[in-house]
Structure prediction request, 403 residues.
Amino acid sequence: MEKRLSEKERSRFLRGAIFLMATSAIGPAFLTQTASFTETYLASFAFAILLSLLIDIGVQMNIWLVISVSGKRGQEIANKLFPGLGYVIAGLILFGGFAFNIANIGGAALGLNVLFNLPLSVGGLIAAALTIGLFLVKRFGPIMDRVMQICGVVMLVMVGFVMVRTSPPYQEALIKAFVPDDALALLLPIVTIVGGTVGGYISFAGGHRLIDAGITGKENVHFVGRAASLGIVTTITMRTFLFLAVLGVVSAGFSLDASNPAATAFLVVLGDTGYYMFGLVLFVAAISSVIGCAYTSISFLRSFHPLFSKYNSVFIAGFIAISASIFLTIGQPVTLLIVAGALNGLILPIVLTTILIASRKKEIVGDYHHPTPLLVFGVVTVLVTGVAGYIALEGIATLWTSS
Prediction:
């Protein structure tokens, strides 16, 4: 269904889709991974960020454009091409979504612990209650869009402020972005951060939001392409700010706290005030990831039965409640998180291959001509993420043999 939008509506949905995708990607794991990799690879990590930017844009542009033009969600396209595949993809994404949402609720609880010294169980309950309350509002879409925008801006401003205060070696980082010390050694962090920014449900967060808003069809191609690009740029900007902030700290001779590496930059720059600032960043990052994860994961069920669409908000609230219950009873199950992360490495190449095939099927995209450069870019990305899938399979095998 095509929909003509006023400029005000277009602007709101553009920002909503951008920040839904970006803030979904910026969670507690994002903060920890970026800080840890920066300490390990120093300025050369800029090369991984630059390459991941190119890969991420290729993934998002292909997925967002095809699902928007077709008006079909990812699982619907998969089922139309290969009957049954959509159910498999939906199952994998739901499993991964549950695992990561448990960690997100844990991150929000930890943020509240830093800010107000609340027990983790109480913080987890508060985080669950806040997000469930959002989705039980009758028209939660516009409110969700605004909340995600606020979360995104808060994180960008605060981390950007810390970055400037650490005085990182900008010139060295710029040079290493193109000439790293050891490009091959950066393969693992590249695979990891690509999976963290466009893996699993994250690839579809913004695209599914636009479909739910009725922004589909050829007339919105340029609009959707711009939203996809800006969403990735927003995510990469946040990662770059955090990278430079941590780089400034480690370049000055400080070591990161192994238990909470991202917090070190805030502590070094602003002392106790910085620690509380990090608590706020952690809470905002986690709570926005809970919202994005729950909303997008349940969107993979909406085409399977009318009840999922009719009671969409109830299913989203239930998803969060189950995630919170697991966190409150058994904490963050490490093995489950590792297996989910490994399976995430398998989802992206499968889904992207399906999308690329669909881009050439008239029964799905009509007379829309998907740009050949994007198609080629997508094929290259499938090969790169296929390596991640192989690594993921090895990780799963190791888990089972060691258990």
